[in-house]
Amino acid sequence: MKSPRDFLALHMCEKYAIQSKKRESAKSASLAKIFRYPLILGLLALAVSLPLATSAFGQTRQTIACPAGHGYWDILSVMMMDPGLASRYHMEGLTNGRPSAYIYTMWDPSQSKIYYTKNPQGNPWDINLYDSNFIYQWVTELDDYNGVNHWNDPRSCRKFNNGQEKSTSDYSMRWAARCAAPGGENSAFWNSKPSSSAVSTKYYTYVDQVQQTLVQNLEYSLLELKPTGTIAITDHRANPPRSFSITTVPLQYNYSCSVEGNNNSCKFREVFEYGVDTDANPVDHVKHTYGWVRWRYYINSTEGNADRDADWVLNNTSTTDHLMPGQLTPNFECF
């Protein structure tokens, strides 16, 4: 048993130890507060700096595994704006600072469709289908028909279909191979006139949701993925907006050709250019695809004379080279 003196000494030591621990705890709490506030401020600053990166979580999306050794590109991926970006942004053309053209891209993998919507109200549109081998042009807007312009009418359109009444009949107007080297292997092919072949340029016209009796076709058509080019786009997620160069993959589409294999026999040409970052986007440091960024329309001045060299005259063009906020749901009521 400890003596009273020893007990008093022990009590004083314990009391001192408890007080010392309390002081240390208070000091630690104070230090924790001192260090916590800069940490919170740092995290807030990081949060302020991150919205662009987190909202642009999408990046170049692989849609297919292409065979190695051919220089193949995943063409479907390039033809659409990557889904993370497309969920909140679109491409827009500006003329004198005012909107002059729009492309809103929506990928619907559940139905193997890509929508390209050309106005903020949700129409008109081009709608492409795809399978494991090809991308197909399926639906496009109807312009002049029997003297009436239906370009902005969601209940009227043209639809490619080979007329064979099969589940795959809409997959007839081949647009591009899923795997191809631009300007190289697997990059070009001809679509035939309507025949017993599943590949066809036959299309049906719908006016006010009614299929018209006249069935038409584009004769032969030639699709070619040309060597890559460049275009400057402006990213409006930055303040001020930032311009930079991206890579383009041009799809050249010649149609109304009277002779298969003879490019001179074609009457019309359209060139669709699809954009992809050459390097990481300098705004969010993520590599993106932007889909359709420029379109050009040419007319052959020889009217498709197969015996004369084609003379392609630029007739119309549309450029959507500004990445802008905003997305929509396509307004499709044609059939």
Describe this structure in words.
The protein has four helices and 21 strands. It is an alpha+beta fold and 335 residues long. It folds into two domains: 4-49; 61-325, no CATH class. It has a 17-stranded mixed sheet that branches. A two-stranded antiparallel ribbon has the order 1-11. A two-stranded antiparallel ribbon has the order 7-8. The longest helix has 46 residues, at 4-49. It is globular. The N and C termini lie far apart (100 Å).
Helix and strand arrangement:
Elements (H helix, E strand, L loop, with lengths): L3 H46 L1 H5 L17 E2 H5 L3 H4 L2 E7 L2 E11 L4 E5 L7 E6 L3 E8 L2 E2 L2 E2 L7 E4 L13 E4 L1 E2 L7 E4 L10 E6 L2 E8 L2 E6 L3 E7 L6 E16 L8 E11 L12 E12 L11 E8 L2 E4 L10
Parallel strand pairs: 16-21
Antiparallel strand pairs: 1-11, 2-3, 2-21, 3-4, 4-5, 5-6, 6-9, 6-10, 7-8, 9-13, 12-15, 13-14, 15-17, 16-17, 17-18, 18-19, 19-20
